[in-house]
Amino acid sequence: MSTIEIGGVPVGPEHQPFVIAEMSGNHNGDVERALDIVRAVAESGAQAIKLQTYTADTMTLDLDLPAFRLPAEHELWSDARLYDLYEEAHTPWAWHEPIFELAKSLGLVAFSSAFDSTAIDFLEKLDVPAYKVASNEIGDLPLVRGMAETGKPIIISTGSATLTDIDAAVRAARSTGNEQIIVLSCTASYPAPPEQSNLRGIPVLRDALGVQVGLSDHTMGIGAAVAAVALGATVIEKHVTLKRVDGGVDSAFSLEPWELELLVESTRVAQLSLGEAVIGPKQAEQNVLRFRRSLFVTQDVRAGDLITFENVRSIRPAGGLAPDLFTQVEGRPFRADVKAGTPLTWDLL
């Protein structure tokens, strides 16, 4: 799978997992909190910070009809009007530039999810290095093509999507000549039950589509993300906040900075641990091989003495005959005097 560069950072199976911290609405309407989140992400070691670029009016209509409300049984946003939710959660467009500038100054890749063509035009003026297609926008193929036409890497989230939906979005992006496509496995539930993550689908998506695959993770904690890397994920996206107790639209399933740092470290270890599909002693095990068991002379013996359980045993270290050869040497005479602690070899018999 070819490496893709996002903001100068290489992304691919041979590289450290690309960890994206999604701010979403966790700024809680405060630009200073948004900037503090950027600083916390930079300190964590994550490579990227991501925003969502929309307004309530570009997302939906200001209506109070049943179709424009979330269900009453929704775990986080019970009976919320869509317009009100998006109004609360959106990141004001005027904040994007200072957020991006701070992120870049701290060595972070900063980009966004565009939710309509006006957002793409706006983000192009800020020269973002990549685009994200949100799960519920995967069926808006003109929007997918619009992001792909910029020629920049495009990351497609797949929550609630069928393989047909995902294939159509990937084809739409490729139709522009853009091959810098990453697909994110995702369960669009907030929070998502771990048992519904279906991470075994990651290699299936990779092989079926011929693209890098990652995970947009809404489960609690970091376990699913680490497991995803073991299954081939090259990108991990998690929502982040400063403190969950501060509240906010996404805080309940977001990581705090210390958890994000742990995620970065753990996914890096997971990626390094994959190694190669080779069975056998590793370089780090060379000293261990010296301490395998072998047959040793355990008592001083004289020439002509017979080998018995008392004077030859299987012990550590290596150097002598294999333990399984004892039945072949038992009862045979020693050729010469031998000191205890001598590895038993054929030339002693």
TrEMBL record:
<dbReference type="Pfam" id="PF08666">
    <property type="entry name" value="SAF"/>
</dbReference>
<dbReference type="GO" id="GO:0047444">
    <property type="term" value="F:N-acylneuraminate-9-phosphate synthase activity"/>
</dbReference>
<dbReference type="InterPro" id="IPR036732">
    <property type="entry name" value="AFP_Neu5c_C_sf"/>
</dbReference>
<keyword id="KW-0808">Transferase</keyword>
<dbReference type="GO" id="GO:0016051">
    <property type="term" value="P:carbohydrate biosynthetic process"/>
</dbReference>
<dbReference type="InterPro" id="IPR020030">
    <property type="entry name" value="Pseudaminic_synth_PseI"/>
</dbReference>
<dbReference type="InterPro" id="IPR013132">
    <property type="entry name" value="PseI/NeuA/B-like_N"/>
</dbReference>
<dbReference type="InterPro" id="IPR051690">
    <property type="entry name" value="PseI-like"/>
</dbReference>
<feature type="domain" description="AFP-like">
    <location>
        <begin position="294"/>
        <end position="349"/>
    </location>
</feature>
<dbReference type="InterPro" id="IPR013974">
    <property type="entry name" value="SAF"/>
</dbReference>
<dbReference type="InterPro" id="IPR013785">
    <property type="entry name" value="Aldolase_TIM"/>
</dbReference>
<dbReference type="InterPro" id="IPR057736">
    <property type="entry name" value="SAF_PseI/NeuA/NeuB"/>
</dbReference>
<dbReference type="InterPro" id="IPR006190">
    <property type="entry name" value="SAF_AFP_Neu5Ac"/>
</dbReference>
<dbReference type="Pfam" id="PF03102">
    <property type="entry name" value="NeuB"/>
</dbReference>
<protein>
    <submittedName>
        <fullName>Pseudaminic acid synthase</fullName>
        <ecNumber>2.5.1.97</ecNumber>
    </submittedName>
</protein>
